[in-house]
Design a protein that fits this description.
The protein has 272 residues and is an alpha/beta fold. It contains 11 helices and 10 strands.
Length: 272
């Protein structure tokens, strides 16, 4: 039996979905995430143990979270929602909730209490920021580069915009989150003023103009596993991705090092 609405998560929350699926006697469940090392970890940590404890349940995985809003809108219009649990960003979760495309949840009836009996709504506290999703992880958007394809190591996100010092293709996520902030910071806007600036049309135009200076050198990605593959194939010299995907790529033995994180508050150095 397919659920008629979809549970959103800002990290896979199979515990919450499990209780709901069990109460509805579902014999199959489609779990949608981001692919790569991240989704593999979810399969190992959440899906496999849950399936082992619920014989007969078939879990189907999908790697379309980057297109969750578009695909769920299309499914809703067609009257055939086939996804049960979707791992999305908080922004997408709020949007899908507002559009009625995600199932509203009651954390105190659908989530287990803390070991000391504290109800979930109090245990999660202010991190329960939406009516339709359950926050579960904290992650970072990082940059990596090929040590053998640059003459010197990049050290800040703004090096992505310096095509003279660092020629070659770079990869960026095909969505505004992160890119717009980096663009403004690297165009001279103080970090503490970034979001005030983005609230104005002038600020949006300024960010887009900065991104436009490198548009011919950008390969856009949708799944976190794409940048590590592009780096491995030598198609880009640097690119953004999620921290788990970058760590997995570095562990593979490729000449890849990280630099810079989304808030530009930390730089990781590694030898070339």
């Amino acid at each position: 039996m397919k659920l008629k609405t979809t549970l959103m998560a800002t990290g896979a929350t199979l515990i919450a979905a499990a209780a709901f699926a069990q109460s509805n006697m579902a014999d199959s469940m489609t779990v949608v995430s981001w692919g790569g090392a991240y989704q593999n970890s979810q399969v190992k940590a959440y899906i496999e143990p849950y399936v082992a404890n619920n014989p007969g349940l078939n879990v189907i995985t999908d790697e379309s979270s980057a297109e969750a809003v578009t695909k769920l809108r299309a499914m809703s219009e067609a009257g055939n929602i086939t996804w049960d649990i979707v791992d999305v960003t908080a922004a997408d979760g709020l949007r899908l909730c507002d559009e009625g495309l995600a199932m509203e949840i009651d954390p105190d009836t659908m989530l287990a209490a803390a070991p000391d009996g504290t109800p979930a709504s109090e245990d999660f506290g202010n991190t329960l920021v939406g009516d339709c999703f359950i926050p579960q992880i904290v992650f970072s958007t990082t940059f990596g580069y090929r040590t053998d394809l640059v003459s010197e190591a990049p050290t800040t996100v703004c090096d992505v915009f310096d095509t003279e010092k660092f020629p070659g293709k770079r990869s960026l996520e095909k969505r505004p989150i992160g890119n717009m902030e980096w663009a403004l910071i690297c165009d001279g806007v103080p970090i503490e003023e970034v979001y005030d600036t983005l609230e104005t049309q002038e600020g949006v135009d300024r960010a887009l103009a900065k991104l436009g200076t490198i548009k011919d050198d950008v390969i856009w990605w949708s799944a976190g596993a794409e940048t590590p593959q592009l780096l491995a194939d030598g198609e880009v010299v640097m690119g953004s991705t999620y921290n788990g995907s970058l760590i997995a790529a570095m562990s593979s033995g490729l000449a890849i090092c990280p630099f810079g994180v989304m808030v530009l508050s930390e730089v990781t150095h590694c030898a070339s």
